[in-house]
Design goal:
- By secondary structure, this protein is an alpha+beta fold.
- Strands 2, 5, 6, 8, 9 and 10 form a 6-stranded antiparallel β-sheet that branches.
- It has 10 helices and 15 strands.
- It has 3 domains: 2-122, Sandwich (Immunoglobulin-like); 127-244, Glutaredoxin; 247-371, no CATH class.
- Helix 5 (249-259) crosses helix 7 and helix 7 packs across helix 8 (333-341).
- A hairpin with a 4-residue loop joins strand 8 (97-107) and strand 9.
Length: 407
């Protein structure tokens, strides 16, 4: 793919270059273009025409949502033509993001000038994308006809309505949905190595989601699960901003599951089997992140889904809204529950287990008290054991003295 950007002519009259130092001299003509091969290489080409002698040119590359700026020196030939390449295997760019770049020119007299910021959109060019939009959604797909694209839009709108029935969240003005024909194509696009089984992913700060929808009878159901799920993540970020990273993992993923038009049908059986084996995870362990191991991670998603549905049923939209506001303000996981709902996370988890699995209050209480009961028993037995040992020592001493007297 080739993207050509004309920076423009006569920098001082039109502003293509602005002074960093004390600039002097005539205008400079800049002609810049970009070419890239997705996940392989990006090449920048620039040509300067200047009456002043250029000593050095540096390029600055800044990715959307990434604080680190890539820099490098651009060598120029005698004609003022320069090339700069980035190996995307070593320094990958964020897929489906806007990449800004600019040049900084140093002249022989020490003057430094910088060009305007130019940009290009970095997307997966391996496929011939079709697209269709209906604000705020634009859907992209490469396998299927127009009715497939319309189905994507319909599910996105239904998912948005579902979310608004759960939480009064504002929808961003632009959301892009990229539908891959299989999970393999999707995984080679994004860095989801920590979740090789994931069927969808979102970059909430970009307003972008990618989903995988293999053809078959389950395709519509996958669509109704994946799109609303990822859409909830995007809307939560739009509400919380920088506070999004403070949302507990169980709360973030639980709300996303609550938005699904077709919830995962395997979750109830998975939870029942784990509860029967006493293998449920503690909700406090799911505050920071989910386990990496696949089976434990899927169990964490199932628990988050069930737990958040219980909260919605018990405390309604207002309860979830209070939780979200506290977490977005930076309150920690357990304290947020106490402030928003008036109970501890431990008590809330016990109530959820009783309502979901029929666990008795006595069983739950004994489970919570078991470590303390063990300590209590040990504290009581240790003095008794010590007294018994002393009694044995005294008895042994008496026998020894009696034997000495007989001799």
């Amino acid at each position: 793919m080739r993207i050509r950007v004309l920076a423009f002519l006569a920098c001082f009259l039109l502003g293509a270059l602005h002074d960093i130092g004390f600039a002097q001299g005539e205008g400079i003509q800049v002609d810049s273009s970009v070419e890239y091969s997705f996940r392989e290489q990006v090449s920048f080409q620039v040509k300067f025409q200047s009456p002043e002698t250029i000593r050095r040119v540096q390029i600055f590359i800044q990715m959307e949502g990434v604080s680190q700026t890539l820099t490098g020196t651009v060598p120029l030939d005698s004609q003022g033509l320069g090339h700069f390449q980035v190996d995307l295997k070593r320094q990958p760019l964020r897929a489906f993001s806007t990449v800004q770049y600019w040049y900084e020119i140093t002249f022989t007299d020490g003057t430094i000038r910088a060009s305007q910021r130019l940009s290009f959109f970095y997307e997966d060019t391996r496929f011939d994308w079709q697209w269709r939009d209906q604000a705020p959604f634009r859907v992209h797909w490469y396998r299927g006809e127009g009715d497939f694209g319309q189905n994507l839009l319909d599910v996105a709108r239904s998912g948005n309505e579902r979310i608004h029935s759960v939480l009064p969240l504002e929808t961003p003005k632009s959301i892009h949905i990229y539908a891959y024909a299989n999970a393999s194509d999707m995984h080679t696009t994004l860095d989801v190595t920590g979740q090789p089984w994931a069927g969808a992913h979102s970059d909430p700060d970009l307003g972008v989601m990618v989903i995988s929808l293999p053809s078959g009878p389950e395709q519509r159901l996958d669509m109704e699960r994946q799109i609303p799920h990822e859409l909830m993540h995007i809307l939560l970020y739009y509400f919380a901003g920088s506070g999004y990273s403070n949302l507990p993992a169980w709360f973030n993923e639980g709300l996303a599951s609550l938005a699904e038009l077709y919830p995962n049908p395997d979750y109830p059986n998975l939870l029942a089997a784990a509860q029967k084996k006493d293998g449920l995870l503690s909700m406090s362990e799911l505050c920071a992140s989910f386990p990496i191991e696949p089976s434990a991670s899927i169990l964490a998603y199932a628990q988050a889904s069930s737990f958040t549905r219980y909260l919605h049923k018990q405390y309604g939209t207002s309860g979830l809204q209070r939780l979200l506001e506290h977490y977005a303000d930076g309150i920690d996981c357990e304290r947020g529950v106490e402030l928003a709902l008036g109970v501890s996370l431990v008590r809330l988890e016990r109530d959820w287990r009783r309502a979901t699995f029929g666990e008795s209050i006595l069983t739950s209480a004994l489970g919570d008290l078991l470590p303390w009961l063990v300590l209590l028993v040990m504290a009581l037995l240790m003095p008794l054991g010590l007294a018994w040992w002393r009694f044995g020592q005294q008895k042994s001493g008496k026998k020894s003295r009696l034997g000495d007297l007989r001799r």
